[in-house]
Predict the 3D structure of the following.
Amino acid sequence: MHVLIVGGGVVGLACAHALADRGTTVTVCEAGALGGGSTGRAAGGIRTQFSTRVNVELSLASIPVWESFADEFGVDIDYRRPGYLFLARTEETADAFRANVEMQNDAGAPSRVLDPDDAREYVPELRADEFVAATYSAADGIADPHSAVQGFAAAVRDAGGDVRANTPITDLTHDDDGWTAETPDERIEADAVVCAAGAWSSRVAALADIDLPIAPRRRQIAVVEPEGDLPEDAPLTIDLDTGSYFRPEREGTAIVGGHFSESDPDVDPDRFDEGMDIDWAVEATERANDCAAYFGPETKIRNGWAGLYAVTPDHHAIVDEVEPGFVVAAGFSGHGFQHAPATGEAVADLCLDEDACDVDVSALSLDRFESGETLTERNVA
C-alpha cells in the first residue's frame, strides 16, 4: 500500500512514521520547508490538562514518545517537565477546573486542584489574591518542535519513506484505482491520501472537492526580559479567564502570549504577517503582569513572531477518513505538536483498517459538525 501525506509538519511526519513503521510505503509532500508552517512557530507545550477526555488521552498516549524521543530517534528535543499551572478568576471557571481534574485523573493524568496561595510554590510572585482556584500537573512540559520534525523526518527516510520539501500538491483526483496527486513536476499515484497540512488543510481538501471547517488564525508570541526573577523551573502558567500565558525561556528571558479575541479574522496562510505587533506584545506583557509580578514597567520586549493555528469551530482536531482513502489529521487549534505521536498511530489505523492505537478518535469525526455532536475544549491558550 502507498500512502501520500500532504504536509511536512510534525503531524504529517508523525503520521508518515507510524505508517512506515508498519511497513507501508509513504511519500510526504511539503509545499515549503519541513516544519516551516505552524510547527516551526509553535510554543512547544505538551500538556494533559484539557477539558475533554479525547484530548487528554491523545496527550497521555503521546507523552511516552516524547519521553523516549532522544533514545528512539537520536535527536534531543529539549524535553522538560516544569508542569502547567492553570488559574481561575471566577467561581464558574473554578467549578470547571474541578470537573476537569476529576476527568483527567480518571483518564490517568496526575493533575490536581490547588488553592491560589499554594500555587505560589510553583510561581512565587503569583498575584494569588486575584484568583479563586488553580490546577497543576507535573506531567506537563515543553519541547522543541523543530527538533521533533527533524527526528521524525530522518526516521521516515531510514524506514524507506520519501520525504519531499518544496513540493506543493496542485490537484487531487480519485477513481477506482486510488488517488492521483499532481505536483508542479510530476504525478503521484497513491492508494490513500492523508491531509495533514495544518492551516492549509482546507485548501488541500478543496482540491478533492472536500469541505473542511478549518480556519487559519494568526497567533503571536513575544520574548521578553522580565523585570522580576522568573524561576527557570516555573511552569507554563495560563490565566484562563483572560487568555494570557507565560513561561520561562532561556538565559533569563520569558515567553508571553495569548489570544484575547475570539473574533480574530481568518487570514491568508500564504500572506500573513509573520512578525509581532508591538501593541499586542505590550498588552500581553501587561496581562502577564496582572497574573504574576514579574512583568512590570521595566520589562523589555526583545522580539517575537506570529504563526498560525488551524482552528475548527469546537477547537478539536478532525481525525477521520472523510472519504474512502482520504484521511484528515488537521484542525488541532494549537495542539497539533503535542498530539502528533498518538495522531500518527490513529491515522495509520484509519489508513490500514487496523486497531493498534490506544485512543478512540471517533469523537473527532468530520460529521460531528453536521450532527451537532461537537465537543467543547475550554482549556485553549
The domain at 84-138+215-311 is CATH 3.30.9.10 (D-Amino Acid Oxidase; Chain A, domain 2). The CA atoms of residues 33 and 165 lie 5 Å apart. The chain has a mean pLDDT of 95. The first strand starts at residue 2 and ends at 6.
